[in-house]
Amino acid sequence: MFDAPTPSNIPPRYARQMRYANLGEEGQRRLGTSRALICGCGALGSFLANILVRAGVGKVRLVDRDFVELSNLHRQTLFDEDDVAAGLPKAVAAAEKLRKINSTVEIEPVVADIGPENIESFCVGVDAILDGTDNFETRYLINDAAVHLGLPWVYGGCVGSEGQTMTILPGETGCLRCLLPECPPPGSTPTCDTVGVLSPIVGVIASIQAQEAIKILSGNRAAVSWWLTVVDLWENRISELDVRDLRERNDCPACKHRQFAWLSGRQGSRAAVLCGRNAVQLTQVGRAAPLDDLASRLSGLGQVTRNPYLLRLKVEDFELTLFPDGRTIIHGTDDPAVARTVYAKYVGS
């Protein structure tokens, strides 16, 4: 699938970055034959794709389930109002822009919902994975696939004015499950729709992620950061957590025991279309939703009702009914990908 030829010479467009001695001509040649997978093409993902394509990465595969909306434009830098009017999927709209930026890079847009059944097929032939997702469930799935396949990946996330990123080299560094052994319960973490997000933090975190990817793809793995980097631009804070011995300090199910609960489907959400009801049921396997906490957090987003058995949120054209056993019925769509997008926006991971 990936058969990009080795370039016989380096185009002048890369002259400035080749003059950086730690990259040089050899690093640029390696970039030209490298292949990257970007999971998610929203704020982080579109910024990442822009940088990697401009840098001359040989092939970039973009996987995203969503379409461009007006509320995306303040932070998702590859899109414009024409994309909103056309209702284009984000992966397709991004690919059109990226091909105009650098016609020598092969861009493969994939409009799909990333799940246990397809993530390894998206990883075929790639050299690194970049996290442009908006929820921890997908990140744990990426982590399982990356560790299982031995592929480096770069975790990143932003909400409010804060973002964080960490580079994961399976077998060398700790992984996401070493850092966070359990995925946060549904609704326990803020989302861009519940607390907002500022555009500058996206650029900062995506730039760090992209630089880490360029190190890996250019053959400079020794330069990769061994730190979890956390940046808060509003509070003017930059902090780093040393994770060099993270793998050694943890009895990680993924790293140490090769147990991949998310990749096997034993963890994560399951979707079922409810026949004749224009609704999808999402079930968070083994993860109950804290309804009391959710009720207070969601009250400013739409109409919230609560009884001892369930919580209901009416927002936009959807109605979400959440149960304490981890089930959520999303009325207003019969598309599981749309249902997951709505769930991620309002409930979170």
How is this fold's topology laid out?
Elements: H1 15-18, H2 24-32, E1 35-39, H3 43-55, E2 59-64, H4 81-86, H5 90-101, E3 106-111, H6 119-122, E4 128-131, H7 136-149, E5 153-159, E6 162-168, H8 176-179, H9 192-195, H10 199-217, E7 227-232, E8 237-242, H11 246-249, H12 261-264, E9 268-274, E10 279-285, H13 291-298, E11 303-307, E12 310-315, E13 318-322, E14 327-331, H14 336-346
Parallel strand pairs: 1-2, 1-4, 2-3, 4-5
Antiparallel strand pairs: 5-6, 6-7, 7-8, 9-10, 10-14, 11-12, 12-13, 13-14
Helix pairs in contact: 3-10
Structure, described:
The model has no long low-confidence stretch (mean pLDDT 91). Helix 3 (43-55) packs across helix 10. This protein is α/β, with parallel strands linked by helices and 349 residues long. The relative contact order is 0.13. Helix content is 33%, strand content 23%. The strands form 2 sheets. The protein has an 8-stranded mixed beta sheet with strand order 3-2-1-4-5-6-7-8, sandwiched between helices. It has a 6-stranded antiparallel beta sheet with strand order 9-10-14-13-12-11, with helices on one face. It is globular, with a radius of gyration of 20 Å.
